[in-house]
Each structure stands twice: as C-alpha cells, then as structure tokens.
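Need tokens for this chain, all 124 residues.
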Amino acid sequence: MVRDVGTFRVKFTVCWNNKCKELKGLVDTGATLTKIPRRVLEELGVRPIMRRKFELGDGREIERDIGFAIIKLRVGSKEYITACPVAFGGDEEEPLIGAVTLEGMGLSVDPVRKRLFEVRFLEK
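Here are the structure tokens for all 124 residues:
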C-alpha cells in the first residue's frame, strides 16, 4: 500500500474588494505561489498585474497571470491572514496554497500528521 504522505487539503478563504469565497485546496510547499481558478479571482475583482513563467512538476514551463488577494485560513481556533500574490489557475485546476502564502501567515507544514502549525517569525 502506497501512502500519500505530505499532501493534504485545507479550507481557506480568498478575498478582494470586500468579497470572499471559501475554497478547499491542496497544501503544496513545492509551489511558490497560491493558485486560484481564474473565474473565482475574476468574480472577486482580482486583476492580473503581471505575467510570470512557472515550472511544473514534470519539467514543462508555462506562463500564468499574477494578481494580489487576501488569503485567510483557520488552524484550530486561530485565524491566519495574509495579503499575497496569487496565480490565476485554469477553471478546472484545483486551488492550492503555496509557500509564499504559508510563510506570510507564519505557518509551516507537518507532512506526517498532515497539518499546519504556527512558527515564529524571524528578525535579525
């Protein structure tokens, strides 16, 4: 039996312009940015401000639009919020939470227990 260690999904909310949409997506620390289906971002009023290249897991290279949104998620009784860049995904693509969003929230991943946990911010 092969176990899918390290991947799990969480409920989160994406917001912009006082509009919010709750989603469920894959926590993916191998992804730099959070990816949201284009139709969701457009419904919220998020506009692309740049276009960047992305390397996929299979080595292919694609380009995606990038905008900014507010991402909220709950771990236990505490809500975490960050403003961050988000990639416009295809309408059929699963949303995912990437490393930049997690770092902005001060969260890390326990891949064995499949959970998020708070970490200290560092300052030097």
